[in-house]
User: What shape does this take?
Amino acid sequence: MKTQVGIIGAGPAGLVLAQLLAQQGVESVVLEDRSRTYVEARIRAGILEQSTVDVLTEAGVGDRVHREGLRHDGIHLQWPGHREHLDFSALCGRSVWAYGQTEVVKDLINARLATGHPLHFEVSDVALHDVETNRPRITYTDRDGVAQTLECLVIAGCDGSHGPSRDLIPSTVRHTWERTYPFAWLGILADVPPSTDELIYAWHPDGFALHSMRSPTVSRLYLQVRPDEDITSWSDDRIWSQLAHRLDLDGWQLHTGPILEKSVLPMRSFVNTPMRHGNLFLAGDAAHIVPPTGAKGLNLAVSDVALLARALADLVVKKDGARADAYSENALRRVWRATHFSWWMTSMLHTTGDDFDAQLQLSQLRYVATSRAAAASLAENYTGMPISDDGAGWSGSDPDHT
Ligand code: FAS
Ligand code: PHB
Assistant: This one.
């Protein structure tokens, strides 16, 4: 088989890339090793930045998020006895949408299948070859057990944090940064209406808690736990009791209900550079991981491929490689901004057991809650840096290239 762009992975990165490329007349084949059912049921992110909603809309898959997504114009920051609302609209004029990654992926898969363009689930033995040449190849076994070879002009490695693509970047040019945090999140999906209009990020001496949501009838909540936490030691009652304890506020009550799913999510920061090697381009979790505190993971994957789609369309259609040459540097500007913000939110909100840390965290929270400048900085990072070719950010000017 031949195509212009071979895409490994049918997560948000791979599926949005395929959709954007098709709109520009670029052929692609998407290869996914899991089943459609598995990929659509994987519970992950829940907050879409304004830019992500804009990209999904431009890609023709934004109808349901506009219809069913919950637009949020702020968040609540909390510490014992105090809950402060940050009004993003007033602070930076941008919003976010509560809309589960599962729904984003369903919308994208439906859109891809409607085009009739290739999307192969349950492949195996995926291997990349000759990525430094003009004829890179992907070999794999299809769901019927037949060995296949896909000849490409370029390969997009959208295969997440455990996929094979990243390893094709030689150690001689590859640089990785990693930080593992001394805590994890225990996350639940509950069949109960949210007890809040917008998300509550709560610092508490016994550990961080987050009240998020998926719809007017389904809540998503998280508790800070030890990184090696045994989830079997957490009964539903114990989970609800700790959530009520850490989110407690006079005059407010946490509604409880049946827990539909519970899991422990490790916390780490990871950045892999470069995001291009020869005719292999990395996007999304294949290139970077952020702790979920800043709600950046899914949004970064989408912003990567918004840049990559333009670059690959120029490369394979116009034979113009300028954007492709600049892709890694431009994407990494936004990656490092989101990596810093995710680290900053994580460091501000998660207890370490050290009282000096606790005093610094409480001071930071009080500063953000009372200073417009500090609140505006959180607001513009949380709602996301505008996506631009040169990664220039909010001001439109890039200090490195003035
Ligand atoms: P993905 O991992 O989504 O997709 C990669 C795809 O490649 C997968 O479908 C995988 O099956 C496939 N693949 C892997 N190896 C392959 C191979 N060899 N051959 C073919 N296919 C292969 N972010 C948030 O903002 N908030 C959250 O609450 C949050 N929770 C998360 C919980 C968990 C358990 C995890 C792992 C991540 C979470 N994230 C969260 C981050 C998450 O949303 C990612 O940022 C997002 O899925 C990134 O999208 P992709 O880059 O497409 O990677
Ligand atoms: C979620 O709803 O899953 C969610 C929301 C905000 C975060 C992390 C996760 O920062």
Observations:
- The chain has a mean pLDDT of 96.
- The two ends are 45 Å apart (CA to CA).
